[in-house]
UniProtKB/TrEMBL annotation:
Keywords: ATP-binding, Nucleotide-binding, Transport. It comes from Paenibacillus herberti. Belongs to the ABC transporter superfamily. The keyword Transferase does not apply. GO terms for molecular function: ATP binding; ATP hydrolysis activity. Residues 5-246 form the ABC transporter domain. This is ABC transporter ATP-binding protein.
Amino acid sequence: MESVIEVNQLVKKYRKAEKPAVDGISFEVGKGEFFALLGPNGAGKTTTISILTTTLTKTSGSVRIAGWDIEKDAAQVRRNVGIIFQNPSLDLDLTAEENIRLHASIYGVFPYRPLYRMMPAAYRKRVEELAEVVGLRDNLFRKTRGFSGGMKRKLEIMRSLIHKPQILFLDEPTQGLDASARQSIWAYLKQLRQEENLTVFLTTHYLEEAEEADRVCMVTGGRIAVLGTPDKIKRQLAGPERIMLGSEELESLKSELDGLGVAYEQQQDTLAVFPGQRSAQQIVSGIRTPLSRLDIRQPTLEEAYLSLIQGGEAV
């Protein structure tokens, strides 16, 4: 897979700080990949994303974005990235379209014209396409002061994509939004990824948002603690899949599981069964004891994350 983000031994140490905020991290992100950078506050996530988007200088190491060096070719880097930061940065006295038009002219993608109808046809077509995708077509010419939080986020997505970037950086993109708005934003982002073949680089405290990532990188203390697919990380840090079984004849159920050679542990009146190489169906079909409970519990990224930051072994 072609790499569009290459980070090699990146270090950032702030003046008077005892330790680096980012301490020698290295990773690559492939074209079209959904990559999530996770970690507790102070782990170095925002510092890393700020360096990658040229808004903060590094102390040492090298970073290339879409083939361009972030220091020598900063202008080229900015032309190839879209950015949505934690805090909205819209001008509330402008309409949605005026916010986009100003952004496009600053990036040098389209020349600025005082009226929408005077803008190039390519600009108007791009705006209308994106507005249709994110659901803002009927609000393009309204002032953003009256927009809801979800509408403002959708507008920021439009604005960040107007110049057709290769990479979209999302720093806590749904912070402060309710569950319905978060779901809507991610539905639009998924559609945009498919249509634009975008590379998405995410930092978030909503761990469920990273469940669909191609790869996840967890950082603590400015260093990479674990890097891999969500399934790999969940197995390493949160343990295997478990089948939760309950029965009024618990001793009989234990005997059957012992006979099947299946590992389990008792949690009050429930047995947590670890299927190993067998499927849940294979195990349950071999049980004759009547069951009062049957749940299949998959480990989550949140469990893996908590295991890591609460002292679990980094891998």
